[in-house]
Amino acid sequence: MAACKLQGTIVRNQFIEKKVAPKERNSAVVQAVVTRDKFNVKIPQLATTYTPLPFTIPLIEKAKEIIVETEDTTSAGKFGRFGGKFVPETLVVCFNQLEAEFKNALHDDVFQAELATALRDYVGRETPLYHAQRLSEHYKSKNGGKGPEIYLKREDLNHTGSHKMNNALAQAMIAKRIGLKSVVTATGSGHHGLATAAACAKLALECTVFMAAKDMDRQSSNVRLMKLLGAKVEAVNGCFKDASSEAFRCWVGDLENSYHLSGSAVGPHPCPTMVREFQSVIGKETRKQAWEKWGGKPDIIVASVGTGSNALGMFHEFLSDTDVRLIGVEAAGLGLESGKHSSTLTKGEMGVYHGAISYLLQDGDGQIIEPHSIAAGMEYPGVGPELSFLKESGRAEFCVATDEEALDAYERLCKLEGIFPSLEAAHALAILDKVVPTLPNDNIKVVVNCSGRGDKDADIVFNCRK
Ligand SMILES: Cc1ncc(COP(=O)(O)O)c(C=O)c1O
Q: How deeply is 318 buried, as exposed, middle or buried, from its count of CB atoms within 10 A (0-12, 13-18, 19+)?
């Protein structure tokens, strides 16, 4: 299969695709050339020194990074004008080492073989691409008998119940390979914490998970499971963003022994790239399974967007298939006008947070606006730099679903298909109500990423709907 070949230019916020000669395609990486004006970046928190990487960055086919050439500098980890590594100088060397270890692992056949075996035998991959017939019928019945065929990518069937395991296991293997003894991380919904706790148990690593106290309360079943797996779960005031800050602090206090295992597609380079790479198995399998099932590609792919890990895992494989529509769904919480939402790409502005440039929910002074969502895993005021770039380039579309719409979608999937989606995945399912009526009626295939299972959310749904 040809490597990703999105190539082009952004001129005044518009992505202009550059045609790639067929012979270049096998080695093409996602590449964009950006001509940009000087932009005003707000630097609200962690204001630190930006240290660009050396000028010559090899194009690494497997990493499929977006390499950006600006007028004056070239650096990895940039997606258009987003991304980068905004960290104190003392930490730059740590992130550079991590990048080197990541690239070594990507090119190490032994590591790749071990990971493939673990994904198959421990995680349970590949996950099915399930034809949701009754859900498809539901939409057809509202549309004069016509409508798309809807398929679910069943990431909820992974061991520990979500897509988070794909990345947690791979990064825990990297921690072990480096010779570190302990892992520190943060979780919102508890899915990433649970996946990390399981991977650490398997690999005999100590595990500490930071989690907002209110998330420990609403996702208590996952907290119990993490503890059973031997992880220490530390409560933090605030929400997922505060747990993330605490995990960073804890890691910085013990750089010698600990590994910071990022589960979200945010943070300084190489974190977003690593997470995307280890999640990209979702899209690769989907392409193969779509071919086996109907001899083509999906027409539309839908995924929820918290920070972007499951969306990018799905989208990345299809970036250069411009006939495949990519739709990301953010959490509109109590409504976009309420101010209580997590719709960063829809309502945010560019800024720097947790070590990278991305869209952010921020006020006029560049201070973070507290996000809200009924789904703990969607409640983050930022979003990954790569998704920020996909929005700006127009390659992916982004829309929103409210708490109520997600609750409806959760119940609908339970009743029609006997599947409990996590409330995060329910946001992606909810958007079908708006998208399906706009589609032409001829043989459209829609794939929704069912990123996690929703047992953890059963009490929330029950209490909201009783
Ligand atoms: C099952 C599930 N889906 C989606 C998300 C949203 O995060 P991301 O956008 O990184 O996939 C989370 C976050 O915790 C999650 O647990």
A: buried
